[in-house]
Amino acid sequence: MGGEELSEFEKQRLANIAERDALLKKLTQDAQSVGLFPPKMPKGASPAGDKAKKKKPAPKKVKKEEEAAAAPVPRRMSSRLRGIAAESEVAKRKADEHGAALQEAERAKRMRKSDSFSLSEMLVSGQKLSGESLLGVDVVTKGVAMPYQRTFSDEDIKKTTDKDLKALREEMSGLGLWDAWEPNRIKLTPERIYTMTFHPSETKPLIFAGDKMGHLGVLDASQTKPVSAATHEDEDEEDDDDPDPVLTTLKPHTRTISCMTVHPSKPTHLYTASYDSSIREMDLEKTTSVERYAPASTADDVPISGLDMALDDPHCLYWTTLDGEFGRYDMRTPRQDSATRWTLSDKKIGGFSLYPTHPHYFATASLDRTMRLWDLRKLSHKSPVAVGEHESRLSVSHAAFNGAGQVATSSYDDSLKIYDFGAKGIPSWKPGHSLSDAQMKPDVVVRHNCQTGRWVTILRPQWQQNPQSHIQRFCIGNMNRFVDIYSGSGDQLAQLGGDGITAVPAVAVFHRSKNWVAGGTASGKICLWM
């Protein structure tokens, strides 16, 4: 075989290969001579660039709690390697089983956990809480955002003729942004903030925030920056010399925390409601969390949208759901199935609140575009009838009651509406009292951009429940990256902002008695004015 003479065809083929190799070699040499790519490195040699000082690698990102808890995913393998013929019934069945397994894993991750939790079981990151450190010493353009463009300024205050209103405007506009740390460094929750509240303690600002994935963030804003950090603030120091604020992140729920409250007569307990269908009670002294209400089965999906408690009763929970239900449950009863529920709307109820001084009255805001006023004394289960209702052009996001009998609502028709039922004599109404459509019209309408879009939490008004003057006031987020404060008569009192606010503080809350205002953003960061 080896001595046989090559055919003409084989000779031509080898000549073509040699010619091609010579051409490639010449092209490579020409490219190297003009610097198009470096010459081939000898084996074991290192590039010249390695001699230079390497850049410090970025710290590895901490995986989310959900990813850490997830089971390892099996290594993927093609059907051919597994010996399964293409388009066979076996292949289809395997694909269906894989899809079903993924759906089941996702469902299990979102399923409500009814167990009681200790601090170590809830803790995600930050400092461990203790009861003493947690509690104070007195307690055991329409639709278009224009960032940083003010709609209320000092000129508006100067033009104010009413003496009391001017004094309050000056007081509220004088609130300063907490400057111990810039807002973009106070990341209280890993995900978008949906709800916030202050602890009622007046000795120090203690803030709670709930996010989209069920995390609960806790910030004690009485802390100060360490002296070493303050001394070297303007110097070129390492990051370790300028520590972030001390925060705590817990995870009591598996889905969005939609609402939370601390009853003033029971200040050691925080109640949180969630889209995982549960209401939990966190003991701030023992730092434990227990489930107080939930459907009988963990498979029942009844997302809770709102939560409130009557001032004169720290034992009773009231809530609304995304299915249009309103519920009441007395925590002193041993069985959770003793809760009373009413279906008040065919569509979701986005928010509600009780009338603080007469809690048998409550107001609801719904996706069906209505704000309705209800009386628990005359609330039928078969066909509940409201005291009255007012329909807006678009959906109503929230209805907030204050102690004077006023209800403030926010709506996607870009308006804030104030209904003054106190002036209509609500404390003296008898059971069965009703209001006509004309009587249900809002007393004040304020233009306000409420077009939050997909990534910003819905704007909701929140009253200061115990103001230190006769003028009622509420706060609400502003799409221009401010928090606006209005009086009960619709007069703007202040527009709070400051350097370092890089996102919309959409979730805005007042302390119940002190002039402290907090705002939470879609990135889990907060701003605080005091």
UniProtKB/TrEMBL annotation:
Disordered, as annotated region: 34-107, 224-250
Role this protein plays: DNA-binding protein that binds to both single- and double-stranded DNA. Binds preferentially to UV-damaged DNA. May be involved in DNA-metabolic processes.
Gene Ontology CC terms: nucleus
PANTHER family in the record: WD REPEAT-CONTAINING PROTEIN 76 (PTHR14773:SF0)
Compositional bias segments (type: Basic residues): 52-62
Compositionally biased residues, Basic and acidic residues: 89-107
Comp. bias (Acidic residues): 233-244
SMART domains: WD40
Keyword presence, DNA damage: yes
GO MF, one example: DNA binding
Keyword DNA-binding: yes
Sequence similarity: Belongs to the WD repeat DDB2/WDR76 family.
SUPFAM superfamilies in the record: WD40 repeat-like
Keywords for the protein's UniProt record, in alphabetical order: DNA damage, DNA-binding, Repeat, WD repeat
Superkingdom of this protein's organism: Eukaryota
Name of the protein in question: DNA damage-binding protein CMR1
Any one biological process term the GO annotation gives: DNA damage response
PROSITE patterns for this protein: WD_REPEATS_2
